[in-house]
Amino acid sequence: MSNAVSTYQKQLTREIKNTPNEYLPHLLQIVRVFRESVVLKPAEESFRQSWKEMLAGDTRPVSELWDGIDAK
User: Fold this and answer.
1) How many CB atoms lie within 10 A of CB 43?
2) What are the domain boundaries of the chain?
């Protein structure tokens, strides 16, 4: 697996080096948002966020949870 990781690191490094300097802040923002979206939050943090949403009334009925999802 480390060989695959180093291959990806090399490819990412090459892409970053080929990105014009004025776009680097945007690229950094994209990478950070991506990382934050794929890294799971600890269970306690996730529960606290869900609890806040529930207390604020930011909920949906269970019957609506699958609306718009085309599961076959």
Assistant:
1) 8
2) 2-58
